[in-house]
Amino acid sequence: MARVPPPVALAVSILALSTSAILVRWSEAPSVVVAFYRVLFTLLLLAPVALVRHRADFRALSVRDAGVAAVTGVALAIHFAAWFESLNWTSVAASVTLVQTQPVFVAIGAYLLLDERVTVRTVGGITLALAGAAVMSVSDLLSGTTLAGTAPYGNALALLGGLMAACYVLAGRSLRQRIALLPYVSVVYGSCALVLLVLVFAGGTPLTGYPAREWLLFVAMAVGPGVFGHTVINWALAHVESSVVSVSLLGEPVGATLLAFLLLAEIPGPTTVLGGLVVLTGIGLTARTR
């Protein structure tokens, strides 16, 4: 990874992340189970390498940093649980676009927690993004599709996922300046998997008994969006500013919507497209001022 230019790494990660919503839609397993196995299998792929090659980094990890990384994993778990569930209630285009409002929340969090100045352009971008989200919600509600009546609930879950993703990016940008990639993601993914496992048990959802097709989808989510998606994003956070990463993540809705059109025959209505463009414009304006 040290030899890979960050823009190339970000492009690879966005391509990998764009497949996530499609893989989730193809799966018939409960969303929390899908999220759990995606994170668990990603952890199982990376942790052995981390333990072999980064023992000294694990020993040097402070209690404070380990605790913050564990809390970051909790935020990631909520992100996954909320976003995966939103895909059962709203369209791929709306869900993926709304979950990518995270740069807006990054800007707000930076102001409240890091005492960074928020400009008029930032406020304008936040307002524009939220207006676009409202347009998308109304569009889905009036679309007449099978998801129309439940779209506001799904959109709210996607927004919650975006908020938790912002917490994940902000914490990652801070911790990755002093923690090696694999030890960091091992702690984050481990904490995330434990939280998702608790949610599985709390809901009485079975962990086994799924057909081979589902297990293949779980592995595909771990290799694609897990290893080449989120893990590469965490690598990039040590090399480029969080705002650059946030803006790059805006490519995911475009890729996911295109894949949904090609593979799911899910055609977004004109108002949904318009709302999505407004959201992306607002997010881009917000992130650019960062």
What does this structure look like?
Residues 11-137, 154-286 form the EamA domain. The chain crosses the membrane at residues 31-51, 63-84, 90-114, 126-147, 153-171, 183-203, 215-237, 244-265, 271-287. It holds the Pfam family EamA. 79% of the residues lie in helices and 0% in strands. Helix 2 (20-26) runs antiparallel to helix 11. The chain has one domain. The protein has helices at residues 6-18, 20-26, 31-53, 55-60, 63-86, 92-99, 102-114, 120-142, 151-175, 181-202, 212-236, 242-248, 251-263, 270-288. The chain has 290 residues and is mostly helical.
Give a brief rundown of this model.
The protein is mainly alpha-helical and about 290 residues long.
Which stretches of 5+ consecutive residues score pLDDT under 50?
Answer: 144-148
Outline the biggest β-sheet.
none
Q: H/E series, N to C?
A: HHHHHHHHHHHHHH
Number of E-type strands:
0
User: Radius of gyration, rounded?
Assistant: 18 Å
Helix content: over 70%
Amount of beta strand: under 5%
* Structure classification: mainly alpha
Average pLDDT, to the nearest integer? 82
Query: Which of globular, elongated, flat, extended, rod-shaped describes the shape?
Result: globular
CA(first)-CA(last) distance: 26 Å
Structural key phrases:
single chain, 290 residues, mainly alpha, 14 helices, EmrE-like, membrane, transmembrane helix, EamA_dom
